[in-house]
Amino acid sequence: MSSWKSLLLRIGEKCPEYGGNADFKDHIESCFGIVRRELDQSADDILLFLLECSEQLPHKIPLYGTLVGLLNLENEEFVKKVLEKIQTNLQDALDSGNCNRIRILMRFLTVLMCSKVLQPSSLVIVFETLLSSAALTVDEDKGNPSWQARADFYITCILSCLPWGGTELVEQVPEEIDRVMVGIESYFSIRRRVSNAGLSVFEDTNENNKLLDEKDFLEDLWVRIQDLSSAGWKLESVPRPHLCFEPQLVAGKSHDFGPITCPEQPNPSAATFGISYGRQRNEAELKYPQRIQRLNIFSASKAEDLRPIDRFVAEEYLLDVLLFLNGCRKECAAYMAGLPVPFRYEYLMAETIFSQLLLLPEPPFKPIYYTLVIIDLCKALPGAFPAVIAGAVRALFERIADLDMECRTRLILWFSHHLSNFQFIWPWEEWAHVLDLPKWAPQRVFVQEVLEREIRLSYWEKIKQSIENAPALEELLPPKGGPNFKYSGEDVRDRTEKALSLELNNLVKGRQTFREIITWVEDSVIPVHGSDVALRVVIQTLLDIGSKSFTHLITVLERYGQVIGKLCPDQDRQIMLIAEVSSYWKNSSQMTAITIDRMMGYRLLSNLAIVRWVFSSSNVDQFHISDRPWEILRNAVSKTYNRITDLRKEISSIQRSFLLAEEAASKARAELETAESNLTLMDGEPVIGENPVRMKRLKSNAERAKDEEISVRDSLDAKEALLARAIEENEALFLSLYKSFSNVLAEPLCEAFKDGNVMPGDQADEMAIDLESSSAMELDKENGRPKKSHSNGRRAGNGYNLDEREQWCLSTLGYVKAITRQYASEIWSFIEKLDADVLTEDVHPLFRRAVYSGLRRPLDEL
Q1: d(Cα 248, Cα 39) in Å, to the nearest integer?
Q2: Which of 247, 493, 603, 850 has its CA 20 to 30 A from that of 831?
């Protein structure tokens, strides 16, 4: 890497490039000296790399802004090109809805204004452009309020710039920035408060009443900015290196910024509520998502008296590092551990990472990324961060009964994986009390599921050894793994079936083809013993042959899958097939899920059959005490949805290919027509005026291009037909799923919650995602254990007094909401059918509420 690139990349870091020095002023001077000398030779490369660094290392933006300010003193033309490039990038980002790029580029513009590179009035014009678009969007007469998510994002961008440049704006253009602030205040008077219903990490059983009093994210940010303004725009968390160079920078020429425009409003729906409005709102919230849902899982004392605005800035740093360094986990951890702030922030860092891991409807990256970052931070900060993470786990465990079901699953997967990287060491004796709770108590189920997941990552004996300080917890371990082959041992009840199994086993060992085995089944087994025995013998035997490893299973399914397909042609037989798989692997939830998933992949099982099996009585009884049926259901729904996603990607690619093929065919045809127009007539006969060889080549090219166009179009038509069929299958799957949910919930809900409410209002959640108040759980300074302990896992302040039926209802409703939220975009496409077929007037209000909450559909439509 060139020396100027290394200096730009590592500016602000204590590194060899800067001789181990950590002084910002020395770094900027050294980098400026090298970059200035290289401008004549590498101006274009420097411009692109400088912008790339500022966009992907945004916590260093004040340093890059000061550097550009110094370069402005030497080379105004280069700095004009920087601003022109930023203007182009910002406009492209606005047009495409690239939220992160818009936010970072606006911050960079603010810092450039502080460094006398950009006219303050030009920055105000950018603010007012976004503000005008936002105000128009939420105007019910002229705009499209369903797209308020975009309007809120624009206002968030403006407000989030002010910690980096509020002082300079107030000093240089006080009237203009006052006008912007008044405009923002007016915006708040016409926008609707955003409800977090459906996206809260912690369930609040009295959610509607609570949301009336709670500020949303944007209102909270506005309060923080007003507090900053009242404090004279002074804060500790934003470095201001330009002040060290202010005597030089004031001599530079400030430039104007080119105009930008915001994208047009989508056509509004006919009303400010209802299905059309809901679809547009869902689309807008997916494109302009809220960046963070704060988790105040530590007491306020752990924040070292952080001002709210300093907390916001530190969160911005942490989120930016997580975002832009997602492919470099060790670099990510190093940058997160060394942010340019003058206060300790380990607790804030843990809360921010967990807020992303548990973010709904889905985290920005796969959960494994956050797992790796936490592991690297524990290794980078061994004296501080492991204890903080342990405190966070204890805090979340205390509130596990209130945790959203999707978040609970993510927490289980994360915690088991995390422990696997630290020799499965955990003070399990602290949680031994869960054995005194009913088997359906959320804390007990949490410990049980963590142990089961740990066994998947290790082996049974190792996990048993890891809980030796709490040996009673062995009761929660799953059975020691291994298949449950019906025809093993000497005490087999049906020796006829065992003999058939041995015969089939010999046929497979003898390399008989699937056709020969089908013939054997049809001629020798079914006529004598019946189809049920044939299915049982074949499935048990083939599963046993494939039980040695995942590879053995795949080999068996590939070679003899058609035998299974022949025996299980319809849903009823497929349900019997799943039952045999579940019986064979009853000691291993993992292998049960893998086998069913692979069989679905080979089209031996339909998603509808899996849904029917999951909602069979034996599985329904497990809904609140085991993740086993839910894992299988999640896999089935996910595989169906992923097929649609893959087809859409393929169609998008083929459409691009079709446009290219169409253009090539048109061009070839035009060239041929031009050549043919040069034909002349002599004695009434055409005479070739072009080279005959060239004419022949042109005809060949035109025919070939036309054939290619037809081929691509046929491929596109075929893929679109597959997509249409996949969408129909997906719709049928979800309708079947919701009907099943409605049926199994109908009677229990009526018996458990006759008044349509989960619990009285005075039992409402004491801790949820809170934008302003601190957590009720204060951690003990020595060991991070909550002082206010609710070891029973019930709602705060109450003993665990839910009976099994009530807990079953709450758990099942939680999964209804989680599944609905995950696939909301698809469900909105057939919401009319769902309303007509499932969400009828007779459906229980709590079931309807769970579906509406997952869809982010206003509850006043109930």
Answers
A1: 20
A2: 603
Range list of H helices, 191-328: 207-213, 217-230, 246-249, 275-287, 308-324
DSSP 838: T
Please confirm whether the linkage preceding 367 is cis (ω < 30° from 0). no
Q: Pick from 505, 387, 496, 405: which is nearest to 446 by CA?
A: 405
How far is it, in rounded angstroms, from Cα 236 to Cα 309?
Answer: 10
Show Cβ contacts of residue 659 under 8 Å, excluding neighbours closer than 6 positions: none
pLDDT of residue 802: 86
pLDDT band with cut points at 50, 70 and 90 for residue 142:
confident
For helices 76-96 and 61-74, what crossing angle results, to 10°? 140
pLDDT single digits (tens) 258-269: 999 999 988 876
pLDDT (tens digit per residue) in 9-68: 988 887 776 666 677 888 899 899 999 999 988 999 999 999 999 999 999 999 999 999
CB neighbour list of residue 70: distance below 8 Å, 6 or more residues apart: 28, 32, 245, 248, 249
pTM for the model stands at 0.89
- The structure tokens 């494939």 sit at 546
pLDDT in tens, 696-722: 888 888 888 888 989 999 999 999 999
By the 8 A CB rule, do 335 and 59 touch? yes
Query: For residues 556 and 721, what is the distance between their CA atoms, to the nearest angstrom?
Result: 32
Nearest-CA neighbor of 859 among 216, 292, 210?
A: 210
* Number of neighbouring beta carbons within 10 Å of residue 362: 13
Rounded-to-integer distance, Cα 765 and Cα 369, Å: 30
Contacts of 481 (CB under 8 A, 6+ apart): 455, 460, 587, 588, 591
**Pick from 317, 321, 408, 307: which is nearest to 367 by CA?**
408
Integer Cα distance of 641 and 823 in angstroms: 8
